[in-house]
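Quiz preparation item.
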C-alpha cells in the first residue's frame, strides 16, 4: 500500500512540475543589430554587410539576386498557453554588383514562428503520451 501511495505522489509531483514549465525554442543565430541603420540601398556592399553582421544564418537567391538572412528568435510557450517572442530578422538582397538592392528588418510581432509552434505541439503530445505510459505502469505495478 505504501509503494502505491509513493508512486502516486511521485506521479502527481512530476505532472505538477510539467504544468508549470515553459518550453523555449531558439531559431537562427544571434547577431548584432547595431549596424542596421548603416545600410544604404545602392551603396552598402556585401563586404560591408559581412563586416557589420558576420556570416548570415541562411543564404539564398531571389529573382537571380543573392539574399542573406540574419535571424535570431526565441519563442517561449508558457503553461497557460501564452507565448513570448523575442528577436528579429534581417533580410538583405544584393544586386549583380554585390551592393544592397533592398533590405527588410523587423522586430517580430506576437505570432509564433510556425516551426516552433509545430515543435511545441509535438513535444506536448509526447509529454502526454509519457504521462499516460507512467500512469499505466503505476496501475500495472499497483495491481501486482
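Solution:
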Amino acid at each position: 500500500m505504501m509503494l502505491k501511495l509513493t508512486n502516486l505522489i511521485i506521479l502527481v509531483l512530476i505532472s505538477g512540475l510539467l504544468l508549470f514549465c515553459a518550453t523555449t525554442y531558439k531559431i537562427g543565430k544571434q547577431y548584432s543589430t547595431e549596424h542596421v541603420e548603416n545600410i544604404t540601398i545602392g551603396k552598402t556592399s556585401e563586404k560591408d554587410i559581412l563586416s557589420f553582421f558576420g556570416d548570415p544564418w541562411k543564404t539564398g537567391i531571389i529573382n537571380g539576386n543573392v539574399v542573406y538572412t540574419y535571424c535570431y528568435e526565441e519563442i517561449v510557450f508558457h503553461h497557460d498557453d501564452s507565448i513570448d517572442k523575442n528577436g528579429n530578422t534581417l533580410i538583405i538582397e544584393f544586386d549583380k554588383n554585390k551592393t544592397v538592392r533592398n533590405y527588410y528588418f523587423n522586430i517580430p510581432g506576437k505570432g509564433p514562428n510556425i516551426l516552433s509552434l509545430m515543435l511545441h505541439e509535438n513535444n506536448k503530445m509526447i509529454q502526454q503520451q509519457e504521462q499516460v505510459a507512467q500512469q499505466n505502469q503505476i496501475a500495472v505495478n499497483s495491481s501486482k
